[in-house]
Amino acid sequence: MDLDINFLKQIAINVFDIVNPLLGTKEVAKKTKRGAGGDLSMEIDLIAEKVIIDSLEKADANLLLISEELGEKYIGDTEKAKNNQNILIVDPLDGSNNAVRGIPYCSVSIAYAIGNRIIDISKAVVLNLNTKDIYWAEKGKGAYFNDKKIHVSDLDISQKCFFELNLPMKNLMKNLQKLSPLIRRFYRIRILGSSALTLCQIARGSMEAFINLRPSNRLVDVAAGMLILKEAGGKIFSLDGTEIEKELSIRVKFPFIACNTKLEPFLKEEFIKKRNQ
Predict the structure, then answer these.
(1) Domain 162-276 in this protein, CATH class
(2) What is the model's pTM?
(3) Domain 5-149 - what CATH class?
(4) For residues 94 and 216, what is the distance between their CA atoms, to the nearest angstrom?
(5) What average pLDDT score do residues 138-156 get?
């Protein structure tokens, strides 16, 4: 069974309906166990994940679910799921710390694939849990913000580019010093706290680049945003400038650079130069 994009949107809306009233409340900020993604799960994360599982079970879906909290779990008939190779990669709540502190920048991220590689992702939905705005894409059909088709901006490095910078805390000052010539070329820096939404901001043309140097960045955070960005004409690549081509697994983590088309040559040149220094 091939999952319809409208079904994926409805799952995201189901999460919104339950989670949105809880945003900024202390009751759901309680930390529970460490999730499969490596972070301590909060009550609100588990609530969002349960909504997704309940939606899939109610629809009698047969698939492998890869989710930040539970890891990997077959939903429905395991043999049918293995045969049809349906995989759903979700981050039930990307930006959990923002969510529990009342900072309006968090999302639910859902990516669908038939196959077990990133290249097999064919449908994606990212829903803003504060506004209910929805970004979505189908492979080969473009990317959308609600009902409007979107495209990355056409700004180059000589213009007023916005970018997000996400660095590991280890060797922070050393990394900042190393990146300072690059940072000076950008107009504004933002650190927003939901990778899925930031990739969508680039897809929409609201930002120009996202440099995420954290090796702990999880596939579940960016699987949906990657397709949406690509379908909007954007680029995402590894720090050596190559295509990101990995298996679909809860264990997969990687740093990356995402940007509009105009910035791709500049950023690849800068990072390849730094790797050779």
Answers:
(1) alpha beta
(2) 0.93
(3) alpha beta
(4) 14
(5) 97
Which amino acid does the sequence have at 201? Answer: Q
Please determine, for residue 124, whether its predicted confidence score (pLDDT) is greater than 60. yes
Cβ proximity of 39 and 31 under 8 Å = no
Q: Which two tokens stand for residue 43?
A: 């009550």
Q: Report the C-alpha dihedral over residues 36, 40, 122, 114, rounded to 10 degrees.
A: 20
Domain residues of the chain, as ranges?
Answer: 5-149, 162-276
Query: 229 is written with which tokens?
Result: 């960005």
pLDDT band at 75 (very low <50, low <70, confident <90, very high): very high
Determine the angle formed by the axes of helices 172-183 and 264-276, rounding to 10 degrees.
140
Q: Which pLDDT belongs to residue 180?
A: 82
Determine what percent of the chain is predicted with pLDDT higher than 90.
Answer: 78
pLDDT tens column, 152-173? 999 999 999 999 998 877 877 8
What does the pLDDT look like over 38-72, one tens digit per residue? 566 789 999 999 999 999 999 999 999 999 889 99
Say how many C-beta atoms besides its own lie within 10 A of residue 117's C-beta.
Answer: 12
Return the structure tokens found at 62.
Answer: 């047969």
